[in-house]
Recover the amino acids of this structure.
């Protein structure tokens, strides 16, 4: 990074291998995503043809070990998420849904048969996965889910039959496998469902003002019949999906700073070139104050992400610390992107420049995997010892 972006020399805290990994992902973003993202966003297209390229870089399930996964560190994964989201939040979200949600659920909670069947295919990009937790009336309160799985018989080999609906499920209409969470008589369970199973229907949600180069769907489950072995044996209760959500939330901590950095860099470059009243915008005090405030928050947010990544690699990252990062970095990133747009003036509302696209995308990032309010309540309970969710 240049000194204009990395004010406090965060690069000095990274190893040569980490810097090399970051450079490879940044090169992919520069060559494949940046030249195309404006028209992908405008046309609401998710570019499936780049999935094999992501797989070759080891980005799919990159922090998981075995089964064809790259087995990289949490910091490596975070650096990759940052660079991908500097390109676009929707494309970083693909890596998150695939790796931190669908693959993570199978890796953490699946049987060996489930792992061997799906993880190598998902890591190679041969298959795409999705993760169905949120419902039309159960977003921040997944315990209120109505999707229900019942046994068709009394023996341990009895089939499962699932009925219900899910909403805002990334990639569902292009996925080959879905991890679906449902209530059962024994509490919440997860199920691995090939999307070609009769009764499973995924429909893309359109139109959208955010995450346009990504896919979010409604899922209907109508009498979906599954064998007994479709249930994730290691996941019982809401702890199962929450462990996966924490993996995705961790990636967001880094990714949001990528969107912020790209918006800041765009505004900085523009301000040096755009002349008003016979001098560059960068030469005015008000513009410099905006740029300084953006650079400070990016430095702090990236340092926070790195610290949390080191804790994760050491096995010491707690859920409330993830909430600190997700709440702070999403909140600051969206403010940075909006402020960057002001420096661009009227030109900033076009797709020639990235800040408003990033800001619009971050409206989704700020909402999914826990809203600001949910993370504030998680931290409020941690600080006071008093739960205030209800």
């Amino acid at each position: 990074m240049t000194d204009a972006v990395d004010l406090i020399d965060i690069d000095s805290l990274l190893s040569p291998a980490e810097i090399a990994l970051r450079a490879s992902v940044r090169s992919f973003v520069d060559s494949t995503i940046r030249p195309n993202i404006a028209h992908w966003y405008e046309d609401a297209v998710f570019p499936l043809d780049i999935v094999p390229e992501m797989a070759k870089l080891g980005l799919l399930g990159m922090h998981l070990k075995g089964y064809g996964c790259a087995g990289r560190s949490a910091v490596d994964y975070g650096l990759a998420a940052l660079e991908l989201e500097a390109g676009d939040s929707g494309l970083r979200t693909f890596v998150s849904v695939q790796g931190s949600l669908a693959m993570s659920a199978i890796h953490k909670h699946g049987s060996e048969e489930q792992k061997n069947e799906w993880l190598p295919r998902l890591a190679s990009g041969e298959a795409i996965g999705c993760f169905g937790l949120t419902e039309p009336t159960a977003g921040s309160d997944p315990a209120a889910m109505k999707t229900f799985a019942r046994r068709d018989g009394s023996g341990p080999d009895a089939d499962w039959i699932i009925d219900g609906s899910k909403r805002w499920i990334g990639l569902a209409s292009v996925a080959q496998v879905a991890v679906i969470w449902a209530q059962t008589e024994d509490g919440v369970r997860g199920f691995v469902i090939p999307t070609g199973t009769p009764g499973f229907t995924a429909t893309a949600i359109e139109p959208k003002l955010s995450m346009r180069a990504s896919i979010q769907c409604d899922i209907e489950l109508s009498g979906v019949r599954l064998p007994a072995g479709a249930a994730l044996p290691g996941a019982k209760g809401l702890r199962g999906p929450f462990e996966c959500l924490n993996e995705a939330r961790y990636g967001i901590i880094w990714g949001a700073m990528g969107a912020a950095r790209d918006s800041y860099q765009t505004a900085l470059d523009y301000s040096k070139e755009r002349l008003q009243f016979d001098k560059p915008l960068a030469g005015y005090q008000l513009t410099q104050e905006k740029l300084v405030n953006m650079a400070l928050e990016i430095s702090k947010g990236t340092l926070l992400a790195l610290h949390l990544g080191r804790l994760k690699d050491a096995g010491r990252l707690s859920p409330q610390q993830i909430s600190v990062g997700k709440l702070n970095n999403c909140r600051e990133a969206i403010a940075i992107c909006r402020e960057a747009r002001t420096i661009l003036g009227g030109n900033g509302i076009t797709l020639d420049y990235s800040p408003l696209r990033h800001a619009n995308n971050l409206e989704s990032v700020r909402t999914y995997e826990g809203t600001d309010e949910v993370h504030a309540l998680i931290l409020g309970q941690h600080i006071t010892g008093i739960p205030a969710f209800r």
In short: Residues 57 and 117 are 22 Å apart (CA to CA). DSSP finds eleven helices and ten strands in the chain.
